[in-house]
Amino acid sequence: MGALKIICTVLYILICVAIVVIVLMQDSKSEGLSAAITGGAASNSYWSKNKGRSKEGMMAKATLVLAALFIVLSIVLNLSAMQ
Questions:
Q1: What is the three-class DSSP state of 1?
Q2: 45 φ/ψ sector (left φ>0, alpha ψ -120 to 50, else beta)
Q3: What is the distance between the terminal CA atoms of the chain, rounded to a whole angstrom?
Q4: Are the C-beta atoms of residues 66 and 18 closer than 8 Å to each other?
């Protein structure tokens, strides 16, 4: 069980670093609260329809996947520490 815990811990640290790097690489959403108040919505352009295939879309998906792995590994490491 010791080797599995070490592997999970190393993977956990790598995921933490990857999340920080990906979040820092993402562009900020400059619309913010003013867009919500004024009703500014994304237009139906080619860019808005295909945002999932762009660099920003891929980084957003990678952030979600890494966050899910982070949560799962957090639970696994916590349960292994209890035993």
A1: coil
A2: beta
A3: 10
A4: yes
Place of tokens 């329809």: 49
Tell me the three-class secondary structure of 4-69, residue by residue. HHHHHHHHHHHHHHHHHHHHHHCCCCCCHHHHHHHCCCCCCCHHHHCHHHCHHHHHHHHHHHHHHH
Beta carbons of 19 and 73 less than 8 angstroms apart:
no
Choose among 14, 27, 82, 16: nearest CA to 60. Answer: 27
Tens place of pLDDT per residue across the chain (83 aa)? 789 899 999 999 999 999 999 999 988 776 656 665 665 555 566 656 666 678 888 999 999 999 999 999 999 999 988 87
